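Q: Could you fold this chain for me?
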Amino acid sequence: MPHIPKWMADAIENLLPSKFFDTLVVNTTYVNPEILKITFSADLLPIAFQPGWAIVLRTGVNDLRHYTISAFDQETGLFDIVFHMHGNGPSSTFVSQLTVGEKLKMAIPTGRKMFVPESDHHFFFGDETSLSFILIMIAEISKRGGTYQGVVELREQNRTVAEQLHLTAKTVLRTADSPGMHAISYLKELASRSDFPLEKYVFYLTGNVSSVQAFRKELKKIGVHSKNIKFQGYWVEGSIGL
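A: Sure. Below is the predicted structure, expressed as structure tokens.
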């Protein structure tokens, strides 16, 4: 829900109070000029949550944005979100101006079920907008003793962000004219190896819609069953957003 009439945004907040919760900004950290990690506090005990779910934040009079949570601790009441600050869009401006001590109202986390706990092997594909999703999935996998691999396509200025976030994954350069190209090359390399049991992995694809589509097409081409491919596009070139 990127851009809606003001009356509709007001109605969502005022007529559905049980769907919102109050939060407080407790820390802000720039990983680099484009990647901002913010820690919020709230009463999380009554809130249901699954890895991969997102909150909705009103970032302007007409703007509502979904943001995936990167860490969620019900006992301490703390949760993190990693934001991709992309250009001078209204949501980037709003998020960049948040300060410690500021209070915000958010829609409670919701989303589709992505994580497959029955699998011991997981693979991620995404970009800057996928960082929160990948981080919280890795935390869940680690708790369960599973293994993971992944490839993240990033713009040149963000090539080191995975390492800075302690995210173990292959990083490749994103090419706007050939979405997913370098990531797909890496996938083909892995698929040719005897120590990569392709049929045992669940693949999670997020980020740019064109890249997700290209990567999914390649997975099906090399024999990965559709039930082992979980995907969700976060953004489209030229659309209103961050």
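A (continued): The mean pLDDT is 92.
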